[in-house]
Amino acid sequence: MILEHRTYTFKPGTVDKWMKKYEAEGLPIQKRHLNRFVGLYVSEIGVLHTTVLMWAYDSLADREARRQAMYADPDWQSFIAEIWALDAILQQDVMIMNPAPYSPPV
After folding, report:
1. Residue 106 pLDDT greater than 90, yes or no
2. Which long-range contacts (CB under 8 A, 24 or more apart) does 49-52 make?
3. Where is the signal peptide (predicted)?
4. pLDDT tens, 28-82?
5. Whether residue 2 has pLDDT greater than 90
6. Dmax of the chain from CA atoms?
7. Kind of pairing between the strands at 36-42 and 89-97
8. In the CATH scheme, what is the code of domain 2-97?
9. Which residues have a Cβ under 8 Å from the Cβ of 7 and sit 6 or more positions away?
């Protein structure tokens, strides 16, 4: 298993609008295609205007196949075009994490 850890940094004042749109439109599309939704977290202390989104996959190949299918989905293409048009995201960082042998399964 691998964990995809995505950090998004937003312009101040745009996180709530993005989160509402993501919950209503983006997350349902991703749940159709991606494997296990681990969660979406919002910064409260520290680097503000930041979210962390996590998905678990069986392997890198599993992740690649699932994301390719999602990218080909017209619903996703429409959603992501609208997200970029919001001009809210300042930075996006993606890490692929391998669990330690004693980590609990996700």
Report:
1. no
2. 49/9, 49/10, 49/11, 49/12, 49/14, 49/15, 50/7, 50/8, 50/9, 50/10, 51/7, 51/8, 51/10, 51/15, 51/18, 51/19, 52/5, 52/6, 52/7, 52/8
3. none
4. 999 999 989 999 999 999 999 999 999 999 999 999 999 999 999 999 999 999 9
5. yes
6. 42
7. unpaired
8. 3.30.70.100
9. 50, 51, 52, 91, 92, 93, 94, 95
For the chain, the residue count is 106
- Give me the helix-helix angle, 60-72 and 74-86, nearest 10°: 90
* Full-model pTM: 0.91
What does DSSP assign to residue 54?
E
DSSP class of 23: I
Tokens of 87: 């001009």
